[in-house]
Amino acid sequence: MFGYYLQLALRSLGRNRVLTTLMVLALALGIGACITTLAVLRLLSGDPLPGRSAQLYYPQIDPYPKDGYVPGESKPQENLTWVDANELFAAHRAQRQALVALGSAKIQPRDAGGRPFFGDAVMTTAEFLPMVGAPFRYGGAWSAADDAAGARVVVIAGFLNQKLFGGANSVGRTLRLNGHDFRVVGVLDRFSPQPRFYAINLGRSYGDGDGVFLPLRAGRAVKLDPYSVSCWEAADIEHLETAPCMWLGLWVELPDAAAVANYKRFLDGYVREQIARGRFHRTDTALPDLMQWLRDENVVPDDARLQAGLAFGFLLICVTNTIGLLLAKCLRRSREIGVRRALGATRGAIFGQFMVEAAIVGLAGGLLGLVFAELGLWGIRHQPAEYAELARLDLSMFVFTFIVALLSALVAGLLPAWRACAVAPAPQLKSA
Amino acid sequence: MDIKPILAALRHHKGGTALIALQIALTLAIVCNALFIIQQRLDRVGRPSGVQESDLFVIQNDWAQKLAPAEADARMRADLQTLRQLGSVQDASASNSFPLHGAGWDNFVRMSPDQVKMTTDSAIFFADEHTLATLGTRLAAGRNFRADEIGSQTGNDPLHARQVIISDGLARTLFPHGSALGKTIYTSNDQSPSTVIGITGTLQSHLTELWAQPYAYNAVLVPARLTGDSTFYLVRARPGQLVDAMRQAQDALYAQSRMRIIPADGGVMTFAQARQRAYDADYGMAILMGIISAVLLVITAAGIVGLTSFWVGQRRKQIGVRRALGARQRDILGYFLTENLLITLGGLLLGVVLAVALNLWLVIRLGSQPMSPLYLAGGVLLLLLLGQGAVLAPALKASRVPPVEATRSV
After folding, report:
1. Does the residue B211 lie in any domain?
2. Which of A229, A340, B229, B402 keeps 20 to 30 A from A55, CA to CA?
3. Are residues B196 and B329 in the same domain?
4. Are B94 and B215 within one domain?
5. Is residue B102 part of a domain?
6. Which chain B residues touch A419 with a CB distance below 8 Å?
7. Do both B167 and B235 map to the same domain?
8. CB-side exposure of A151: number of CA atoms within 13 Å?
């Protein structure tokens, strides 16, 4: 029976080539636009550390002075001061934890002719790389003892290892950073969480990832300055460790809800203690998990949302258009339907026949829509936005495209098919 | 034309009528808003910078090692000397940022030392006596800096410039009644006043974001070289020698000293490139909106043509009967045009509501501006014309149905 419907549908679609093309094209454009913008939204709101992000939390407190403080109306700050970060770190209330600050290190190639260049450097502590699951090709992370001693050791990214050491095992070799020798202890495989959650407030969140990871104290000792420094009063930013400035992030790993509640209590307690000592004036704290932190920081730009919203409106119009055209087609075929009904076809059979026709339009629209989506993403990859080159269709989006296409076409087919099966056979035959 | 029979006929095509009306409504809602967004973006992109942009380029210079402030200042002066001596270079100046750059230094500006809230926000551009000539920015009132007034400071030092030149945008914000010349303002946290010695013509700030729209033309020129890890050299080439100057300038700087890093990507760029970079997202958005609107209009028009053609085909016999009973071709044409007009008007009524709702959503969720009713009126007119245009071909076909059709049984 299905084969017969297919045959009927194809014949009907073939009879009105222009109309069929119009329906397929409109549906394809709508689907292409939707999938393109959805792929971008998905990329932007994606999980940088699948499987781990739910256990990573970002403690936030507010060391600002009392001036202008209205309880409940301010949010805790994005970063911590050196003093608070170290106190919270030293308390070690989490399974694993790491301090993070991002800066720019001058990297000097060993060969004489090579010009020095700047690369993004992550100043952090020993547990950071294991905690976020960074894969090592050679060697491994440094130890907590290295942190405390400010040892001049460094873990470098795979692409930097390729550039500087030709991809060989460079563990034990030295690298000159800001004019000082650092010993390579580890080389990473590809590690570039998208977005780079630990640098999210810098607006440089997508792309290849960072070149070097080094102990925080060692980085500060060679005058590596963090990108993001905000001070609440005039400050000597040459000496960030004592300045009233915030520039460090703390990431903690908390395995379950009880641990999260415990940590939040600890954080609140810490703030109360600081208020009692007169250091703090504001009680707000926050402990968002990684994905919540990304939402708080508005990782998805408004323009991307706007585009996705418009693309959906566009698809809606395309579907409306298809419904109208399918309806017109089916009404024109009232006589054919009457004959089939008179010859014994049930209402269900007529309904099925028209839904098959709609599904064919949907599949064709989906196929063409995929081409449009690829075209759209190709266009986006040539845009200047920093996430642009990551815009691609993966398998799940691929499947999703077809589901959307088929669903839109079937929804579009419902009304016409229903109208078709409601056609009464007798009047149609009479007028013939 | 009597519309009663048209309405009666439409009642027999409820589904099709409602669909066309809905499609027109949705199209109106999206197209009006899209056109409004395009216009907003193009307005932003078309703003003047106050800089003579041709023949101007920018070099980003990072020092390859930490330099003491005095040493960095000496090197900057030497670099500027080198640049100004090049045959293809007309003038050069150093600064921390430049109009449209995006990143830079902005400070709250106050009118008195004990004021807590800012009067406005302004870009701080470090400048010397060559800056205005290099940018090609006009001095509207007062005088330029003299060479002996140019100092040097680090980013860590408080900003205390005794004399400043301000942009006319800032001057008008601070002193709406009367001239700013000779008045004092406070440009940083400390209590020392700055006297306004000059007012430029239009000069745009480095800030290009939407939130900074009210401050986009506020700039304070501070007579100092800012020493630090990096600096920008603004260079004006002699007319028509931009390409030569860009190459020569970079070579000359490296010849002067190799202890510097000029990034390979974007380290030397023309002002046109800087402008492109600042507004890329806006261009992209405007183009996308344009494409979406155009495609939507085509699809809607095609939908109207398709559906009306079917109706005409379906009603050939009735048309034949009407023609046989004395209706002229004109009457048949008028019938279909009026029918379409009624459907379109119904759709537009709903569309206006949807368009306003969509705009409201944009205002609330994305902080966009309220749409001017002009766009709504324009959209309505556009879709009315589109509907009438789209229906014309099928309607003409209908009007050519011969009266003899009435006698045919098929």
Report:
1. yes
2. A229
3. no
4. yes
5. yes
6. 15
7. yes
8. 16
Residues B252 and B370 in one domain: no
**8 Å CB contact of B281 and A314:** no
Q: Spell out the per-residue pLDDT of chain A, length 432, in tens.
A: 778 878 877 887 778 788 888 888 888 988 888 888 888 888 888 888 888 889 999 999 998 887 767 777 778 888 999 999 999 999 998 989 999 998 888 888 776 567 788 888 899 999 999 999 999 999 999 999 999 998 999 999 988 898 888 888 999 999 889 889 999 999 998 888 878 888 765 555 566 666 899 999 999 998 888 888 887 776 677 788 888 889 999 999 999 999 999 999 999 999 999 999 988 888 889 999 998 988 888 777 778 888 888 888 888 888 888 888 888 887 778 888 888 888 888 888 888 888 888 888 888 988 898 899 888 888 888 776 667 777 777 788 778 877 888 888 888 888 888 888 887 777 777 754
Tell me, yes or no, if B302 comes closer than 8 A to chain A by beta carbon: yes
Which of chain B's residues have a Cβ under 8 Å away from the Cβ of A432? 410
Mark out the alpha helices in A125-173 (DSSP H runs). 128-131, 144-149, 158-165
CB neighbourhood size of A13 (10 A): 19
Taking the model in full, what pTM does it have? Answer: 0.77
- Say yes or no for a CB contact (<8 Å) between B189 and A383: no
| Residues of B in Cβ contact (< 8 Å) with A302 | 366-367
What was the ipTM of the complex prediction?
A: 0.77
Residue B57 covered by a domain: no
Residues B324 and B214 in one domain: no
Q: Where are the alpha helices (DSSP H) in A153-276?
A: 158-165, 216-221, 257-276
Contact with chain B for residue A261, Cβ under 8 A: no
- Can you give the residue range of the structural domain that contains B304? 4-46+279-407
- Looking at beta carbons, which residues of chain A come within 8 Å of B306? 19, 22, 324-325, 328
Residues 64-103, chain B: which have Cβ within 8 Å of A? 64-66
Report yes or no on B264 lying in a domain. Answer: no
Domains held by chain B: number: 2
| Beta bridge partner(s), residue B226 | B153
Local structure of residue B186 (DSSP, 8 states): B
Strand partners, A184: A154
Two structure tokens written together for A354: 């028209």
Residues B73 and B213 in one domain: yes
Helix or strand run (H / E) with residue B142: strand B139-142
| B219-227 and B120-127 strand pairing | parallel
Q: Is A314 close to B292, i.e. CB distance below 8 A? A: yes
Q: What is the DSSP string of A326-395?
A: HHHHHHHTHHHHHHHHHTT--HHHHHHHHHHHHHHHHHHHHHHHHHHHHHHHHHHHTSSSTTGGG----H
* Residue B334 sits in the same domain as residue B227: no
What's the CA gap between B161 and B122, in Å, rounded? 15
Nearest Cα residue to A196 out of A55, A102, A80, A117: A102
| Angle between helical axes of A334-342 and A347-381 (0-180°, round to 10) | 140
Query: Which residue from B285, B303, B366 is facing A324, i.e. has the nearest CB?
Result: B303
Same domain, B296 and B154: no
For A141, the 3-state DSSP assignment is coil
Neighbour-count burial for A227-247, b at 16+ CB within 10 Å, e otherwise: bbbeeeeebebeebeebbbbb
Q: How many residues does this entry show for chain B?
A: 410
